Amino acid sequence: MAIRDLIPTFGQKRTPARWEDESPFFRLQREMNRMFDEMFNEFGLTPYESRLGGWSGFSPSVDITENDNEYVVSAELPGMDESNIDLSLSDDTLTIKGEKKQEFEDKGDNYFRMERSYGSFRRDIPLPTKIDVNKADAKFKNGVLTVKLPKTPEAKKNVHKIKINSK
Predict the structure, then answer these.
(1) How far apart are CA 94 and CA 92, in angstroms?
(2) If 0-12 CB within 10 Å is exposed, 13-18 middle and 19+ buried, where does residue 47 land?
(3) Using one digit for the tens of pLDDT, what is the confidence trace for 107-153?
């Protein structure tokens, strides 16, 4: 149980940033993968996940910044093509989904080796204020997805300054 599970939400809808964080089965799978990787390392072997380019159980790194007018979400998606990325926005959640397929083929005089790896991910990012859905913009360049999410005029007005007292 995470410490954030102990904090009351007072009627707010709570959307997990990562679905894997909510599932004990994904945590168990990550721990088993880590144990097997350690075992492989002790014998000087390459872990299976490393041979797949680290794609097994992939969840992209995401940076989120905010200014007075918008949120900017940047997700690292190395080796992906924009046609394999699905981006959707509801009232309070940005969802980034994708799938990666990778094939490796090695031929020699007396051998043939082919490896295939497939992986998919989904990342749900909760947004604390309303977004102007019609003005949302996304760009994908050099493996980085950048999504600009402008705030609605009502969300901009609802900012309250709090005076800080020194005593």
Answers:
(1) 7
(2) middle
(3) 888 888 888 777 888 888 888 878 888 899 999 999 999 999 998 88
C-alpha–C-alpha distance, residues 87 and 95, integer Å:
6
Q: Catalogue all structural domains in the chain, each as residue range(s) with its CATH number.
A: 14-155 (2.60.40.790)
138 Cα distance to chain centroid: 15
pTM for the full predicted model: 0.57
- Higher per-residue confidence, 65 vs 29: 65
- Find, among 126, 114, 41, 55, the residue nearest to 84 by Cα: 55
59 phi, psi to nearest 5 deg: -140, 120
Q: Of 123, 107, 127, 124, nearest to 115 (Cα)?
A: 107
